[in-house]
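batch_manifest entry 22 of 60
target: Replication initiator protein
source organism: Streptomyces aidingensis
requested by: lab member K.T.
priority: normal
notes from requester: please return tokens only, no post-processing; we will run our own comparison against the previous entry in this batch. if the run fails, retry once and flag.
--- input ---
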Amino acid sequence: MLWHAHTGRLWKAITDNLYNHLAARTGRTRGGVRRAVRISFAKIAEYQKRAAIHLHAVLRVDGGEGPGKRPPPWADAATLASAVRSSTAAVRLAIPYTPALGERELCWGTQLDIRPLRAFGDDESLTDDAVAAYVAKYVTKGADETGAGLDRRIRQPEDIATARVSAHVRALMGTCWRLGGLRELGALNLRAWAHTLGFRGHILTKSRVYSTTYAALREERAEHQRGEDGGPVPAGLDAETVSAWRYVGSGHSPGGAALAAGIAADLDRNREEVREIRGGPW
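--- output ---
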């Protein structure tokens, strides 16, 4: 659970040090490497069957001017792979000391599988569609598919007892909840993320220049909608949105309130039955 909570920082440690490790392998300075190449990535977080986060990442080396520019010959796939291995192995992240856990240090495991997608200039180039398909394969595998978490936050310990998850996942949620009660780990906000077993990142993240931007996607959608009728797209077309709002009320209707009260009573009754059967909160 602590590893899940620090996944973002562990990954950042790899990317922050990657230029240093490239410099060490090519006999250059870090500044020289930064001027010569630019590394970008897209990263996907996937829950495994054992409820552990597994990362898939696509890394790309461009020339120093950015996407689409040829990198220098020394910045090939083999050199990048070697730098990723050493950068990953060097990561060490200390977590706050607690009397309950003592001193703990986090690192990456040994299951590191690096596969070159293509070397720049090869006859067989990898298409954008192929990379997108690789990314989509793991983005669409969420926590629900592996039974590794819930799609809602846990508000109280009883929610863990009644969650429709495996005993293994329930135990992990309980561990996350108990760790969240330690004062020294308060900054991790583990109880708020117990439903995702401590992981609080996005499923898909990317560096700034990898692929496109949300602004570009919005513009593409707007342009498509403007030209949907088959006619020409007016240049510099400005749109004005006029909205009017009127307050009509809040809360449940009388019928909805009765239904909600019945559901709440059923949930309370279910929790009580589970506690009696299990003899404890989990």
